[in-house]
Amino acid sequence: MPETYLKFQSSPSGRHEGKKHIIIVGAGIMGVCTAYYLVTHPKFDPEKYHITIIESKRVASGASGKAGGLLALWAFPAQIVPLSFDLHQKLSDQYNGVEEWGYRRLTTVSLEGDLSHLDDEEDDEDEEEEDEASSSNNDGSSQVPSSRKSKTKLPQDLNWITSSLISNCSTLGGTDTTAQVHPYKFTTFILKKAVELSKGSIEFIIGKVNRVQFSLETGSATGVIYQPSSLNKSDYSPESQTLSGDQIVLTVGPWTSKILPDCPISGLRAHSITVSPFKDQSVSPYAIFTEFKTGAYSYISPEIYARQDEVYVCGEGDSAVDVPETTDDVEVVKSKCDELFRQVGKISPNLKRGHILKRQACYLPVLDVPSSSGPLIGETNVTNLFLASGHSCWGINNAPGTGKIMSELLLDGIVESADISALEPFLYFDASVLISDDEEDYDDDDDDEDDDNHAGDDEEEEDEDYYRDPTETSSETAPSDAEWSRDA
Ligand SMILES: Cc1cc2nc3c(=O)[nH]c(=O)nc-3n(C[C@H](O)[C@H](O)[C@H](O)COP(=O)(O)OP(=O)(O)OC[C@H]3O[C@@H](n4cnc5c(N)ncnc54)[C@H](O)[C@@H]3O)c2cc1C
What we know:
Strand 2 (20-25), helix 1 and strand 3 form a beta-alpha-beta unit. The protein has 488 residues and is of the alpha/beta class. It contains 13 helices and 20 strands. It has helices at residues 29-39, 63-66, 81-95, 97-101, 120-136, 183-197, 256-259, 334-347, 349-352, 395-411, 437-443, 447-452, 481-484, and strands spanning 8-9, 20-25, 49-55, 70-72, 104-105, 107-114, 166-173, 178-180, 202-214, 221-228, 241-244, 247-250, 265-276, 286-293, 299-300, 303-306, 311-318, 355-367, 376-379, 385-389. The chain binds flavin-adenine dinucleotide (FAD). Flavin-adenine dinucleotide (FAD) is lined by residues 25-31, 54-57, 61-64, 67-70, 208-209, 251-255, 259, 270, 272, 314, 327, 362, 364-365, 389, 391-397.
């Protein structure tokens, strides 16, 4: 259901006319944090500026509403992590994040073990053994057979994990370096605040942006072309509309290359579940990275994050299905979610006896270049076209920092809060390319078609400027497991 403070329209109100108009495409956590830091920037004046957010479906309907929400000072990239980690704390202090979006500090551990000897029957026996053990001793390790004793003890209060199955436990971060948020609650709260503080200068359009509009004379971005929809419709109008703007910011995560085909950002699907523990009891605050052997050559590594009232579990990424048209078209494979539940049930009797609250899947925005793990933040090589995308598995962590950086760039023209020189989009791709290589091959025989597909191509010889040399940037690197890895 749409939040009541948001009034989505299909067409612009016209209130942007006569003001500097900033268009933000995508209402995930990046678009929302950009809007928030814009309206709280000292230079922002609602009389002079207007912000339009265009979203194809709903606020936080992609990864920003379905992520784990782990925050860490040891995340990447180092240029923005300290800034963003600190801003998360400040936002929580300012708006009671503890209550509003489940902000809290917690401990992160990495667990290793061998589950290959467990079949489902033995699993049940273990559970009974462990229950007996934990009823007399929270640690549980002292009363299990010595052959199963953990080589490295679990922290005493991590009593919802079967310690006898753990061969190694190492601490990745304590409460000084690790925290968490509920990403959906965070994103929707910050948007609500941005709307309140904007004094009417933020408006929402529901529609799918297909293209950036360019000036034929200058080559700079002048607006977007989108297909409107409405909240009670699942499809889009076939009639495109154009919305003019002075600065265009793309915050569409894994969908970026659908608008800018040369951009080397792709999507990697990941499934997750939320679980209500046994008898709805809360479990101690730990974020847990795992690596468990399940067979001679097989391993599983679910990530398990305790939240105040539930436990979040996510699995590894799979590249089986390309990024679909919209967040509503993301395919959720029930068996993958059920398998996650079975996996965590093996190491936690408490979760095994709990129940699944949500089965979901979403796409991680991955930067496919060998030299950087992203994100891309800054102005592209097309004047007035900006990008904040490709945050990989640390987008929740890095969103406030990204929003602040974008606000400085858009309103001051210079970024003071962080050094983003290695993250600048123009280092990685040509934003003026408007058709993908595949389409280009297809269009080779049809010169007339080409004319419609180039920014500012009013003269024949300008064509070269709008086609990249395929050897310049590699967009062919498949997303690897390493790119998904959050290890410190
Ligand atoms: C399973 C999983 C767990 C994760 N856990 C963590 C974690 O614990 N900590 C952490 O820091 N990060 C985590 N992440 C990463 C984080 O979720 C992402 O980096 C972040 O949410 C990306 O935000 P975004 O706003 O760029 O993209 P998205 O959340 O994908 O938002 C993009 C928005 O753009 C809209 N859109 C797309 N195309 C168009 C268009 N053409 N026109 C208009 N609107 C459009 C979409 O509808 C969507 O609302 C996780 C990711 C996954 C997949």
